[in-house]
Write a structure and sequence with these properties.
109 residues; 6 helices; VHS domain-containing protein; phosphatidylinositol binding; Serine Threonine Protein Phosphatase 5, Tetratricopeptide repeat; mainly alpha
Amino acid sequence: MEFLLGNPFSSPVGQLIERATNSSLPSEDWELNMEICDLTNSSEEGPRDAVRAIKKRIVANKNFKEIMLALTVKMDPSPSRMRSEPNALRVASLWISFLSCRLMTLRCP
C-alpha cells in the first residue's frame, strides 16, 4: 500500500508527466511524451508510477486542457510486462471504463 501514498509526481516519470500535462503548454510535446514512454518502460516501477501520475491529472481535475494532455501521453507497454493477451485486454478494459466514467462526469452539470 506504500505506493498509493505520497505525491505521484515525485517519481522521475511522474515529474515528466507533470511537465507534459502542464496547461501552459501551447500543444502536445511529443518529444517529452516519447521520453515518458522510454522511462516508463525502463524500470519495474515505471508503469505503476506513470499510471498514478496520469490518474492524478485526470481525476478531479477541472482543467480540461490538462486532462486532454494527460490522455495524449501514450505509453507503449512492453509485451514482457503484459505477459499475455488477457492481461493486456484487462488493462485496456479498466482504462476504458475509467475514462468513460470520467468523461460522463465532465458532461454532467
